[in-house]
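User: Sequence in, structure out. Go.
Assistant: Echoing your sequence, followed by the structure tokens.
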Amino acid sequence: MDKINPQAKKLNKKIKNNSNVVFDLLSDKGKAIFFPKKGILGQTAEAKGKKINATIGAGVDDDGLPIRLACIEKQINISPQEAFSYAPSFGVLELRQKWKEMLYEKNFSLKGKKFSLPVVTNALTHGLSLAGYMFINENDKIIIPDHFWGNYNLTFVNAYGAKLDTFPIFNKNRFNISGLEEKINSDGDKKIILLNFPNNPTGYSPTIEESKNIVSAIKKSAKKGKKIVVLCDDAYFGLVYEDGIEKESIFAHLADIHENVLSVKIDGPTKEDYVWGFRVGFITYNMKNADKDLYSALESKTTGVIRGNISNSSMLSQSLLLNAYNSENYEKEKEEKFNLLKERYDEVKEVFKDKKYEEFFSALPYNSGYFMCIKLKNKNAEDIRQKLLEKYDTGVIAMGNLLRLAFSSVAKKEIKQLFENIYNACKES
């Protein structure tokens, strides 16, 4: 700890003054990281607004606007400053404030609760990686359901040396609360939990009752002295198609539950607002009784990782999103696209009413998101995938004995044919 930069030590002191638990949850890298307030960044900030400013590492035209190519500028319908300038490493302040405001609007259970100002990430994978940097030491275990996004292996295992400690996601077609409880209450004081709802690949979100039980299980363990950081991967937030299913983020219900639980929300517009290529996301923190100093310290440490990794996220993407969120048409247009996905989901449910498919496969529970999975009966998933490619002009994802189907990318009129193709491929194998 003696080699830690004084600026990191200052942030650590702020954290420890409010919560030793948060400090203990930080990884070694998390404890050592800081956002530099001195050096180039500090001197640049001090020179802001000066008549002659030779600190900025960007090209400025004679009119004071960013140097830019006309062939690029003519394609963009916003000001040069919004498009071509560097964004702050923390993200555009107005966008961060707007996203925080929207979190309250989309999660009514957050009313009256305080949480950090979201920090802008380069979409959700980057946000997950930032969480790994902040909280995961080599050989730390991440408690996670056994059906998970494959990229977690690269993000956490390859990059930080974590171990994925899985439990079966379902118990009699319901979320496996007892499996989660067993993992949380196992040996060791520090627990890292990763929850992804709607789940990729299954397309499952917990019922309202299951959501309450998940939160209760975590709270009980916290009361027993477990120090818990919960990573909430909310990539598909808002895409819930059935009544009785939890529509709020689990983050909203975990907020303020106990002084031993740090909740981390990793989200963004990628899927929520259908801007996959914009690469903008957010990371947000909550802990019961946390003060402004703790949140600002976590924001600064997170931004230190960003500064040392990608420097900042796209200014153009952030500006476009902020303008969209302030548009009077935003909510209406978003609802239209939600309804398009729900129609496809409903068509999957309708097609699956045909009992003939049960001869070769059955559906895992699903109710939300982009995907659903089918479990094959006495068939090799990779063999079926290959036959679908070669004979039926159809692409799916094989995962063990499962096939993951992205109904989000299939037109409603083609969904029936998708299942017919799978059925026929199975019949011929």
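User: And one key feature?
Assistant: The mean pLDDT is 96.
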